[in-house]
């Protein structure tokens, strides 16, 4: 008899746990959908630091153009942003995809350097901040702030 009561208690608590998890899931989804269209308004800062972003890539032809475009579209002053793109010993068209994006007219004023390397050779930077990004990562345009 005690075993049957323990079994029933176990099954009831499992079902209650599943119900609570579903309520949390639907509540979080409703909250996210209700707030996903809101745009964050950033106040301009008085002074921006110069930032260097280094993106090493090896055979990333399929994703590198989206990555580069996401970095270049960040809400950061283009004169304070330096982007170094490294195509490291690639067997595909990674470097060409990088060049396609950076040659667009909207990015003409930005400091962008594309290098095709046989051996990874990252230079010394004269910057306060250096950010590295994997070539398959997209940057949120509101995340880089001084």
Work out the strand percent.
15-25%
Summed over residues and divided by their number, the pLDDT gives a mean of 77
Q: Rg to the nearest angstrom? A: 24 Å
CATH superfamily of the largest domain: Spore Coat Polysaccharide Biosynthesis Protein SpsA, Chain A
Overall tally of structural domains: 2
- Determine the fraction of residues in helical runs and give it as a percent range: 25-40%
Shape annotation: elongated
Strand adjacency order, main sheet: 3-2-1-4
Specify the CATH architecture of the largest domain: Alpha-Beta Complex
Largest β sheet strand count, sense and barrel closure? 4 strands, parallel
Q: What is the strand tally?
A: 4
Uncertain residue segments: 117-122
CATH class of the largest domain: Alpha Beta
Distance between the termini: 67 Å
Spell the H/E element sequence.
Answer: HEHEHEE
CATH topology of the largest domain: Spore Coat Polysaccharide Biosynthesis Protein SpsA, Chain A
List the total number of helices.
Answer: 3
């Amino acid at each position: 008899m005690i075993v049957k009561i323990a079994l029933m208690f176990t099954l009831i608590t499992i079902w209650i746990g599943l119900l609570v998890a579903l309520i949390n899931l639907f509540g979080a989804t409703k909250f996210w959908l209700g707030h996903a269209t809101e745009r964050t308004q950033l106040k301009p800062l008085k002074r921006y630091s110069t930032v260097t972003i280094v993106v090493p890539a090896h055979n990333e032809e399929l994703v590198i153009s989206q990555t580069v475009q996401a970095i270049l579209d960040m809400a950061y002053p283009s004169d304070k942003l330096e982007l170094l793109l490294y195509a490291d010993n690639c067997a595909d068209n990674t470097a060409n995809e990088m060049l396609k994006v950076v040659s667009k007219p909207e990015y003409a004023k930005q400091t962008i350097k594309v290098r095709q390397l046989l051996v990874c050779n990252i230079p010394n930077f004269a910057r306060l901040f250096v950010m590295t990004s994997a070539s398959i990562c997209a940057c949120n345009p509101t995340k880089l702030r001084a």
